[in-house]
Amino acid sequence: MTRPTGLGVPLCMILTCLVAASAEDPPAAQPAPEQWIAPLPDDVDRAVGEDWVEEWMGKWVVWPSEDEVRARGPLRDRRAEFPAEGADGKPIVRGDPGAVSPDEARADAAAWVRRILKPELVPDDLDDGFVLLQEEDPSRSSVLCRFEIHGTGIQVTQLRWALCVVMRPDPALIEGLEPRAIGPAAFRAVFTKGDAMAGARFSDVPGLPYFAQELDLSVSSALWWGGFFWYTDGRSTAVYIRRADRGHSPARAGDPWF
Q1: What predicted TM-score, i.e. pTM, was given to this entire model?
Q2: What is the pLDDT of residue 43?
Q3: Hey, which residues does 168 pair with through a beta bridge?
Q4: CA-CA distance, 196 to 79, in Å (whole number)?
């Protein structure tokens, strides 16, 4: 994959180029799903830490088409192909996790959605709305859901170690706010610990004026995240979050899922 080279390109220019490029694409066989926010460049992870996997982060904010889902074929249980192993290759009880079944991944994703979102924003039919994208590399397999409730759109993409939430709040919630204030307003409206997230200290990344990353990790020491960063286009906000499960060995980038 050819990576963009310009972290110094303002996000508004990135959004403009993406819209222009999409306008030149030939008509698709099926209408493309509505995109709630444009993805960041593939190499933006170099500005926020080595664990964010290049080439794939941008895809986490993209809702897949029906054709893309069908192209992956039926889901397979690959636990035997990717068992838990230690450094010597022997199965172990604790250490590098092995793959889980698609049903286990779906249940895990559902538990996390209920954990991070305010109860009134979790739809009754949540379990029926998941889309599982099983990749050749099980560490890149993901579980997605998307819904609108009380005027706010929420899209969640999860990997074993991280999740990405795109929030499109009721316009009245963010009307008149400066871009830097839009993310915290969305956090407070959507997340169970939104006040704590909104209270974290942020630092702008040079060249991306509407993008910020958390610096004060002590704020989240007893919560469900192990660090996060976010950006906004002035309407929607995307936040990338490390899944943190206190009391358990945290999953890492590269750990298989399903």
Answers
A1: 0.80
A2: 62
A3: 153
A4: 37
